[in-house]
Amino acid sequence: MSRPPLPPFTAETAAQKARLAEDAWNSRDPDRVSLAYTEDSVWRNRAEFVSGRGEIVGFLTRKWARELDYRLIKEVWTWNDNRIAVRFAYEWRDDSGHWFRSYGNENWEFDEAGLMRRRVASINDLPIAENERKYHWPLGRRPDDHPGLSQLGL
């Protein structure tokens, strides 16, 4: 199985890879998202360690059951050969209606087929008032004309 664009990455292909990841995560479909990772992919997400697609699906299922109305934007920080570093921010609410913006960085490492074999994420959550939200598109893929992180001042 191959997931273009493939390494080695350029500025253009790293940006394409980040947007494809953003689109997949905004689908909130754990099975779809898991297909971008190797069978034995290893993650660190905050203080949680995940290994393999089955655990990825379980992790994402739990995540999106708790993080409601999830909307994400990713932006490439840097890239080199088979690695990409992104920064991101996503907005979500909990089941009691409290809104959050979660900020973070991810380091990604890909195999030759363009599947991610390692993902290391550091994330911080900021409570926000509903009127402070910046992401208002309908759930799903961020529209092409919606500003990115830099344009939003995030």
TrEMBL record:
One Pfam family cited in the UniProt record for this chain: DUF1348
InterPro entries per UniProt: DUF1348 (IPR009783), NTF2-like_dom_sf (IPR032710)
Domain of life: Bacteria
Name of this protein: DUF1348 domain-containing protein
